[in-house]
Amino acid sequence: MKHKESKRRGATFVLCTLVIPALVLIVSAGQTSAYEREETLQKLIPLQGAESVVIVNSRGDIRVIGEKGRKDISCEYTKRVRARNQEDANRLFNLMDLEVKRDGADITISARYPDRSEREGNIVSYLKQRYAGLGIDINLMVPPGLNIKIITASGDTELASILGAAEIAAASGDVEVTGIGSDLKIDVSSGDIVVSGVSGKAFLSSASGDIEAHHITGDAAVRSASGDMLLSEIGGDLTAASASGDITAEGVGAVTFSGTSGSATFTGVRKGVTATVSTGDVEVEAVPASGANYEIRTSSGQIELRFEKPMRGGFMLKAQTTSGDISVNLPIAVSRVGRHQLSGAVREGKSVVVLETASGDIIVSEPEE
């Protein structure tokens, strides 16, 4: 057991490092060999009143799990190096480590890699060859009440059983989150997002990747530039945007959606819907507890609005399609009707329903009273 003492801004804490035997491999590829070194180490980081933990890693996976009853942070990390020969591998390996800094109530845990100046010199040839590879995988067990922020450039992220707020920013890699006791924010440039169990608001964004989210207590804001979205059991309202991909949401309050290309399906909608789609069908199954407005427009696609029960107070309906048919199963008093348009009042007409498509059919129905 090795002990290293560090002082940061007057606060003293002890880091205990346990070295687990290294794994050294020599891999042959034709006539060229690559030397690999891998070692797993451990640090124990005292909390000392910290409320938030920031984890930063540019190359490697990150896993953070809240453990009930824990009073400190248990850190296990694996350093991996692949180089042309043993000398280069050992030199780079010794330049890699985890740095722990404290700033007030925040602890920052950062993976340190050799910078450009440290790599230059007699290992320039190493940098040019195809076997170069550095990485640190980080595995933390933390008190569940902490707030967590994760910043990663390349690697998968797993976060679970955290009672505080959580934020994840990833350039490349998949993200999986389970059991967050407050608000959650995830922003991924390239990778899938899977979320289950958030007792607060959720903001989820992926530039390229699918998004799956279930059991969100508060409002949810979800957007994807390229990828499908699958959502369920949203306790609050949903705001969603998609440039390319389908969206399916089940059990949600009000819905605000903007889509460029892809179909949109919303079931179990408890409030109103505002949806605009350039190309794609829109299907809504509504179960409003009271009056709600619905405004759905698509340039090319079918619109179907089904009320699972008659909406209290009724609504004014305006349906219009440039090329398509209109079909209604409603107790409607028609005020205007044509081949591609229909207007009228359903019961008292207290709410407003506007359905418009340039190319596609429109279907509106509710069960008979």
Tally of individual helices: 3
Helix content: under 10%
Q: Give the low-pLDDT segments.
A: 1-17, 19-32, 119-131
Q: Which sheet architecture does the biggest sheet show?
A: 17 strands, mixed
- Provide mean pLDDT, rounded: 89
* Number of strand elements: 33
How far the N terminus sits from the C terminus, by CA atoms, comes to 76 Å
* Inertia-based shape: elongated
- Output the radius of gyration: 27 Å
Describe it for me?
- By secondary structure, the protein is mainly beta.
- Among the domains are: 1-143, no CATH class; 267-369, no CATH class.
- The chain is 5% helix and 64% strand.
- The protein has helices at residues 86-95, 116-119, 124-128, and strands at residues 2-8, 11-29, 32-46, 52-57, 62-66, 72-83, 97-103, 106-112, 133-142, 147-152, 157-162, 166-172, 175-180, 184-190, 193-198, 202-206, 211-216, 220-224, 229-234, 238-244, 247-252, 255-261, 264-269, 273-279, 282-286, 294-300, 303-307, 315-323, 326-329, 332-337, 341-346, 351-359, 362-365.
- The strands form two sheets. It has a 17-stranded mixed beta sheet.
- Strand 7 (97-103) and strand 8 (106-112) form a beta hairpin.
- The longest helix is centred in the N-terminal third of the chain and has 10 residues, at 86-95.
- It is elongated.
- Mean pLDDT is 89; it is low at 1-17, 19-32 and 119-131.
Fill in the keyword field for this structure:
mainly beta; 16-stranded mixed β-sheet; 5% helix; elongated
